[in-house]
Amino acid sequence: MFDFITSWIAAGGAFAVAALMFLENVFPPIPSELVMPLAGYNAATGEAHPALTLIAGLIGSVAGAWIWYEVGRRLGRERLMDWVDRHGRWLTLSREDVEKALGWFERHGAAAIFFGRMIPTVRTLISVPAGIQGMGMVKFLAYTTAGSLIWVGALFGAGYLLEAQYERVQGWLNPVTNGILGVIVLLYLWRVFRGKGRRKES
């Protein structure tokens, strides 16, 4: 998996990184915790331009967050809840997940957007209440970009620094990334098939 992702990023360049990070914010089984470190590693080996790769990852991440902001803004609270009840299982979202994100946003406001972008389980959902509550788009994008830059930059930097140690870790890195991805996919399938996102019957 390590070789596959790095080769794919090398072939697609910054566009591939942006696309993967956009999808990571929309479709849960694609983890930024794998994408950006591998993008950083690829940049360190000279396969990609470091600055362009980092910026591409940031753009993809912010674009994905904006999609959920627009979903919240256009649907509103009740219509969104109805949509989650019907279709949330495919994104492993439940009404309770959205309610928690709304509550956190209502308590912390803009700080929830900034810090939420650095928390894996919150990164996507925190954009939804910002749209529902009518946070200005410029303000939303500013806080989202700032928080995303820290998260994406840290992951990218970890992968970039890994290049110097590649000879020491190459024997186990590919199996580890395969294992991580396998666990993520299995967890996603488990949550889908157990009905995560369906409204509980009264």
TrEMBL record:
<feature type="transmembrane region" description="Helical">
    <location>
        <begin position="172"/>
        <end position="190"/>
    </location>
</feature>
<keyword id="KW-0812">Transmembrane</keyword>
<dbReference type="InterPro" id="IPR032816">
    <property type="entry name" value="VTT_dom"/>
</dbReference>
<keyword id="KW-0472">Membrane</keyword>
<feature type="transmembrane region" description="Helical">
    <location>
        <begin position="48"/>
        <end position="69"/>
    </location>
</feature>
<dbReference type="GO" id="GO:0005886">
    <property type="term" value="C:plasma membrane"/>
</dbReference>
<dbReference type="Pfam" id="PF09335">
    <property type="entry name" value="VTT_dom"/>
</dbReference>
<feature type="transmembrane region" description="Helical">
    <location>
        <begin position="7"/>
        <end position="28"/>
    </location>
</feature>
<keyword id="KW-1003">Cell membrane</keyword>
<feature type="transmembrane region" description="Helical">
    <location>
        <begin position="140"/>
        <end position="160"/>
    </location>
</feature>
<dbReference type="InterPro" id="IPR051311">
    <property type="entry name" value="DedA_domain"/>
</dbReference>
<protein>
    <submittedName>
        <fullName>DedA family protein</fullName>
    </submittedName>
</protein>
<keyword id="KW-1133">Transmembrane helix</keyword>
<feature type="domain" description="VTT">
    <location>
        <begin position="30"/>
        <end position="160"/>
    </location>
</feature>
